[in-house]
Design a protein that fits this description.
This protein is mainly α and 113 residues long. The protein is built from four helices and no strands. The longest helix is centred in the first third of the chain and has 38 residues.
C-alpha cells in the first residue's frame, strides 16, 4: 500500500509545477494584453497587430533567455515551453496581418495626417 501512496505524492508535485506554468503563461498573456491596450492609443490602428506580434516575440525571447539561465531541468523545460507558446501565439497572430497593413506602415505618403 505504501507504493500507491508514494505515486500519488509524485503526481501531486508534477501537477503543482504544471499549475505554476499555466499561471505564469496566463500572467504573461495578461501583461501583453494590458500593454496592447496601452499601446492602442499611441500607435495607428493599422500598426497595432504588428506591434502586438513584436511584443509577443520579444516576451518569448526574454523567456527563452531566462530558461537558459535556469539550472534545474524541470524549471528549464517549463520556461522553454512558455517561450515556445508565446512564439507560437505570435506566429498565429502574424498570419492575421494583411500585407496592405505592412505597406501602409513603411510607405511614405504626401498627405498630412
Amino acid at each position: 500500500m505504501a507504493i500507491a501512496d508514494r505515486g500519488r505524492m509524485v503526481r501531486a508535485k508534477d501537477q503543482e509545477s504544471a499549475g505554476r506554468g499555466k499561471e505564469l503563461m496566463a500572467g504573461i498573456l495578461l501583461l501583453a494584453l494590458i500593454a496592447a491596450l496601452g499601446i492602442r492609443n499611441t500607435v495607428p490602428l493599422d500598426a497595432l497587430a504588428p506591434v502586438i506580434v513584436t511584443l509577443l516575440f520579444a516576451a518569448g525571447a526574454i523567456t527563452a533567455g531566462f530558461a537558459l539561465l535556469c539550472r534545474r531541468d524541470r524549471l528549464r523545460s517549463m520556461w522553454f515551453d512558455l517561450a515556445g507558446g508565446l512564439t507560437f501565439i505570435g506566429v498565429v497572430l502574424s498570419v492575421l496581418i494583411e500585407p496592405d497593413q505592412m505597406i501602409r506602415l513603411f510607405a511614405l505618403s504626401d498627405q498630412p495626417e
